[in-house]
Design a protein that fits this description.
By secondary structure, this protein is mainly beta. The protein has two domains: about 5-140, Sandwich (Jelly Rolls); about 160-270, Lipocalin. The chain has one helix and 21 strands.
Length: about 280
Amino acid sequence: MSWIVEQSDNTSAVHVNGNTITCTKDGYYDSPINIMYNDPADHNGQYFWELKFIESATEGGSSAVGNLSDGSGLLVQSFGNQIKQGDKVHILLELTDSDMKMYLFHNERSLGLAFHVQSPYPKPLYPVVSFSGNGKVTITRSDQKHGSLERASSQYNSVEGKWKVLDFPQHPECIGCEFKVQRHEHIENMYVLFANVVNMLHCNLEHNPTTNEWKSADVVSTLMAGPSELMKEEQVISNFLSEIQNVHVEDQQILIMRSKNGVEIKLERCTEWAPSPVTENIFT
């Protein structure tokens, strides 16, 4: 099989060796490099590809957590965790006369149905790898039997996971607001904290294991407008996130956060939200 590289100013960064593609460039990528693997899915049936991310850049900016667009200008949350060096991603594509389904797996964990598009859709379809930084990826057509196609729940311990505000004495209007904490992909003792009211808010949360102190960085927002009451609630949450000083978990089910000025909120662990598949016919 061969690779087909999208022509751009970054084309010279691409190096091909069999089923392995390597991108190497000094400095930042102005735009992603898209490379198609010439292994067509051209008739009804199942196609199962395995992608191994052998190398992944870790320079500042290449590992930033961002948002995805659904094509309409609206921002949506990520379908899964960020891909890092050493990871494996499997793609299962099912083609029939009536529809196309695409399932994703990350390090053997099923992420479930990502796309479900009704006919008509074009054939053939091809796997594509997109680089926004230096990296090396190997792709193979796999005959491996997949397990369950249902999305597997994430298993967390400590502060990681999804949480819902249970008690916020100074601001009861914020009860029910959902937070998500995940470990930073590249920096030790660093976490990323997300909250959603009108906008998606996120900030880095650094833990000092020696002193057991926590420190949050500036809060970043998607900056969309909303009803005034919700915007006020969002500002309360944003202010709190920027002042976090202490975090601890009780019995793995309750998360206590305290700010520098002594404000405390209590959160309970909740079931992680599962994203819905894209059903819009993206080919028309």
